[in-house]
Design a protein that fits this description.
- The complex is a heterodimer of chains A (739) and B (189).
- By secondary structure, chain A is of the alpha/beta class.
- Chain A contains 26 helices and 28 strands.
- Chain A folds into 4 domains: 21-85, 2-Layer Sandwich (Phosphorylase Kinase, domain 1), CATH 3.30.200; 96-168 and 365-482 and 501-524, Rossmann fold (3-Layer(aba) Sandwich); 170-359, Dimethylsulfoxide Reductase, domain 2, CATH 3.40.228; 609-736, Barwin-like endoglucanases (Beta Barrel), CATH 2.40.40.
- In chain A, a hairpin with a 4-residue loop joins strand 19 and strand 20 (490-494).
- Chain A is globular and about 70 Å long.
- Chain B has 189 residues and is an alpha/beta fold.
- Chain B has a single domain (10-188), classed as Alpha-Beta Plaits (2-Layer Sandwich).
- Chain B has a 5-stranded mixed sheet. A two-stranded antiparallel sheet of chain B has the order 2-3.
- The termini of chain B are far apart.
- Classes of the chains: A alpha/beta (739), B alpha/beta (189).
- At the A-B interface, strand 3, helix 2, helix 7 and helix 8 of A face helix 1 and helix 5 of B.
Chain lengths: 739, 189
């Protein structure tokens, strides 16, 4: 609410980020832990298995979990260091409340809870139920994701619930539902092993999904050819058989052109197309003019390479197509995804061994979290909040009247716009740091300043939480039991390694108490996480994401269970579509025509350079955790502006020059990193930092009309030399998100 | 002589082509209590301005270790499995002879402690039948610990090389570098 209570430097001094390092001889007990708790990483969607060392109820270190079949002990640097988020000096150990002129001071649970509830009631009584919004996130377990969906609709009674997956999986979800009627990777990673061609589009696997690299190399050892589509020469592309350096925004042109080449050469599976799909004719009609010259112009890729990719893809007997945010963070994100699915369907290579397709889900529970209902349009089991049958079923499960079930609400960025319009006055958030993660974040900050009341459930004072009135001290990943669903659709078990420290409480308990204080306690009475999971199983039953046949014991006994798993004796479904029965109303896979359209903001003479954003291997998302871990910060301390030498030469830019980057949304300064591993017309900035170091001060807030995902991957910028070299001080302090 | 389960069939293989420069190996190595939060494995860009290619350096555990040969305090011991251990802390005098002599640039002097430290093939793990930490965590398996048969079967297009010619000095190592088929020695003129 309003501006920050005190200067940001004071907040940083009190609450961090501060870099934590392990003591030189390791934490007490790391060589003789009391127990080794098997669990999974708290970061990306691959959900590597890992063991945490515990001594005296504190995390002392990690140990590889070599028996977990996905990663067999392999980890990326974030996974190795994740244990350092525990026992951290910045940890919020009790509820805290905003005090003008001082910052945040500790308060009691009673005061924090009763203030929160009285504000919710005041705001809703004054402005209506939907004036109090909720934002959630998908690093939360399935149990918490489910409970938050129920909480928002049953206790808070608002339609305006959305989640940070809005910035992540919604384009892929939208595209997959249109094509298959279901939103999950069609295959497990096991099907990579003997794929003849692996095509990876818009996924910097080497930095964002490092442990998946082993599977790709394994396939290459078996003869697979690797095609990587990325504007940058990422580590994965360095040794690829074919790197297509697509201009940001050119993806649907590329895949449309590839489809046309497949048609022209009859590299098509007619049996599959005729018997198991619809929409082929309209789809190939839409791309009939996408010849190689047109394609070269609209993709920025030499036409010989486009043809080569189409030939490799077209002629293969087995294949696997993977994509991620690089093609999905666009105003045509859904179209880009569909254009990829089109070339998979045209090949017929799906639903059988080594014939695979999938998006790579980004967040730890990005898969499960996008199924169990904390999205503005969704109910558990990946059901639709506007569908009368779905509403009826879930209302029964929840014990409410269907007419009391709210309708579809506003998505994340749309909520920010609604705050500006005066429609949303209060907010509660968990597992989301919008000030760093949303585009055009000056606009986001102004919105936060307008809220009458904002309460955050969090473990650290994130950049967004600095604007809150109350922070309810919640739990870290290792402090609460539950399940998550990995990027390949495998439901796995997260185990509680330590109890929440100080007066922090488990997130689930906080939500249940709030629900109780809002008068709905009888519907939120879950003694254990397993009780929540058992209700979730029922709620998901009959939906496309059917978890009914999954239990905690079954997960433990089988190292995870792939959904759908409809009955207790069903083993789970690693590979979808083996029976060729798709989840669309007509049971067929759908081709959908995609006509290329440009990005919403193309470069012009005023803003001549393309700006794209992305990630680095040592940081995770908005950095609330990883910017507090010393070694991860030291590996890549400040966001750099990657720029090709030819482009740098035009401006007279040298390495480490401090460059002002300006877009129509804002301006910020970054040190130049002059490298040949990027297109000559494009610059790149990683987004994990806040304050004046945030790349999202510059990005555009135009949304895909279907998925509402922002176009993080393309906008137009100007570059200007400041005349200064980037300083060591700046490099040393970037992780703190100062102003 | 304490019993160990060091598996003599297992060997260490480094394939820099697969390295993605993530530094997971460095982070994991430093976590071992005996390493004092310092990594004994080192990842470096060759030339970031041109490429993301990285090199990764572990101790090569040479058959005739130069470091041990030049140590005036006889602090570096090579055991019967061929593992060349890090400096014996009660003998090392911090003279840096080994730092200068190693053809691969492996041993480092820890100034605060005035001791040399280097990779010891994760002896606390390998001596009980586990894999070195770096090869366990490496997400791309650029670092691989397994048998020669396994690597030949899994990676038929490359060949492990453990013979180096530094000028006129031939150095044969326990650790293998994966190279294209047909390579039998690496020459560093």
């Amino acid at each position: 609410m309003a501006k920050l209570p005190v200067h940001v430097d004071k907040l940083i001094e009190d609450f961090g980020p501060h870099k934590a390092y392990a003591p030189q001889s390791g934490f007490h007990g790391s060589n003789e832990p009391d127990k080794l708790v098997k669990t999974h990483c708290c970061y990306c969607g691959l959900q590597c298995g890992i063991k945490l060392k515990v001594k005296d109820n504190k995390i002392a270190g990690f140990e590889p979990w070599e028996d977990f079949p996905y990663n067999e002990g392999r980890l990326c640097p974030k996974g190795v260091m994740r244990y350092m988020q525990n026992n951290h000096p910045d940890r919020i150990l009790s509820p805290i409340k905003r005090v003008e002129g001082k910052g945040f001071v500790p308060t009691s649970w009673e005061e924090a809870m009763s203030k929160t509830v009285s504000e919710i009631k005041r705001i809703q009584d004054t402005y209506g139920k939907d004036s109090f919004a909720m934002l959630s996130g998908v690093s939360l377990t399935n149990e918490k994701s489910y409970m938050i969906g129920k909480f928002a609709r049953v206790a808070l009674k608002t339609a305006n619930l959305d989640y940070n997956g809005r910035l992540c999986m919604v384009s892929a979800g939208g595209g997959n539902k249109k094509a298959f009627g279901l939103d999950r990777s069609s295959n497990s990673w096991a099907d990579l092993k003997h794929a003849e061609v692996i095509l990876i589009a818009g996924a910097n696997v080497s930095e964002t999904f490092p442990t998946l690299t082993h599977y790709i190399w394994q396939a290459r050892d078996n003869g697979a050819k690797l095609i990587v589509v990325d504007p940058r020469m990422i580590p994965l592309a360095r040794t690829a058989d074919l790197h297509l350096p697509v201009r940001p925004g050119g993806d649907s042109a590329l895949f449309g052109a590839i489809l046309k080449i497949m048609v022209d050469n009859d590299w098509l599976d007619h049996d599959f197309i005729n018997n198991h799909t619809t929409g082929f004719q309209e789809t190939i009609e839409a791309v009939k003019d996408y010849d190689l010259d047109w394609a070269e112009e609209h993709t920025g890729i030499p036409k010989e390479q486009i043809y080569q990719a189409a030939q490799m893809w077209g002629k293969a007997k087995t294949s696997f197509l993977l994509h991620a945010r690089g093609i999905e963070h666009h105003t045509k994100g859904v179209d880009n995804v569909i254009s990829c699915i089109n070339i998979v369907l045209a090949s017929g290579r799906i639903g059988r061994p080594y014939c695979g397709y999938g998006t790579i889900t980004g967040q730890g529970n990005g898969q499960g979290g996008r199924e169990h209902g904390h999205k503005c349009d969704q109910l558990p089991g990946n059901r639709d909040i506007t569908n009368p049958e779905h509403r009826k079923y879930i209302s029964e499960v929840w014990g409410i009247d269907e007419k009391d079930m709210p309708g579809k609400g506003l998505s994340a960025y749309e909520q920010i716009e609604a705050i500006h319009r005066g429609e949303i006055k209060g907010m509660i958030s968990i597992c989301f740091n919008p000030l760093i993660s949303l585009p055009n974040n000056n606009f986001v900050r102004e919105a936060l300043e307008k809220l009458e009341f904002y309460v955050c459930i969090d473990t650290f004072l994130s950049e967004t939480a600095r604007y809150s009135d109350i922070v309810l001290s919640g739990s870290l990943h290792e402090e609460e039991e539950g399940t998550v669903t990995t990027a390949e659709g495998r439901v796995v078990k997260i185990n509680e390694a330590v109890t929440p420290p100080g007066k922090a409480r488990r997130d689930g308990e906080i939500i249940m108490e709030l629900a109780d204080r809002l008068g709905e306690g009888d519907k939120f009475s879950f003694p254990t996480s397993e009780d929540i999971f058992n209700e979730l199983r029922v709620a998901s039953k009959g939906g496309t994401a059917d978890y009914y046949g999954i239990t905690y014991q079954k997960i433990v006994d089988n190292y995870g269970v792939f959904w759908p798993c409809k009955t207790l004796d069903h083993p789970g479904t690693p590979r979808l579509w083996e029976d060729m029965k798709f989840e669309t109303p007509d049971g067929k896979a759908h081709f959908n025509p995609v006509k290329y359209r440009p990005a919403s903001e193309m470069p012009n003479k005023d803003y001549p350079v393309v700006l794209t954003t992305g990630r680095v291997v040592s940081q995770y998302l908005s950095g609330s955790s990883t910017r507090r871990i010393g070694k991860l910060v030291d590996q890549y301390p400040e966001p750099l502006l990657e720029i090709h030498p030819k482009l740098a030469f035009q401006y007279g830019i040298e390495n480490r020059d401090l460059i002002k980057v300006k877009t129509r949304r804002g301006e910020a300064e970054f040190p130049a990193q002059v490298v040949e591993t990027i297109r000559e017309d494009t610059v790149f900035i990683p987004y994990h930092w806040g304050g004046k170091f945030s790349a999202n001060q510059l990005t555009i807030d135009n949304l895909d009309p279907v998925s509402k995902i922002p176009e993080f991957k393309v906008c137009a910028c100007q570059l200007e030399k400041t005349g200064k070299k980037a300083s060591q001080e700046r490099r040393a302090e970037a992780y703190q998100s100062g102003l | 002589m304490p019993e160990t389960n060091y598996d003599q069939e297992m060997a260490f293989f480094v394939d820099m082509q697969r390295c993605i420069g993530c530094h997971a190996c460095e982070m994991a190595c430093a976590e071992c209590e005996t390493n004092g939060q310092e990594s004994m494995i080192h990842v470096n860009y060759v030339d970031r301005s041109k490429s993301t290619q990285t090199t990764v350096q572990v101790c090569m555990h040479c058959e005739d270790p130069t470091c041990a040969n030049v140590c005036p305090a006889d602090a570096i011991h090579q055991d019967e499995f061929g593992v060349v251990h890090s400096a014996n802390t009660s003998r090392c005098i911090g003279c840096s002879n080994c730092v200068l002599a190693c053809p691969f640039g492996v041993p480092k002097k820890m100034e605060e402690a005035e001791l040399m430290m280097k990779c010891n093939m994760c002896y606390d793990r390998t001596s009980v039948g586990k894999k070195p930490m770096c090869a366990t965590v490496c997400p791309s398996q650029a670092l691989f610990f397994g048998t020669k048969e396994e690597i030949a079967r899994m990676r038929p297009d490359s060949v492990p090389v453990n013979s180096f010619l530094f000028g006129k000095q031939e150095v044969n190592t326990k650790v293998n570098i994966m190279m294209p088929k047909g390579t039998d020695q690496l020459l560093i003129p």
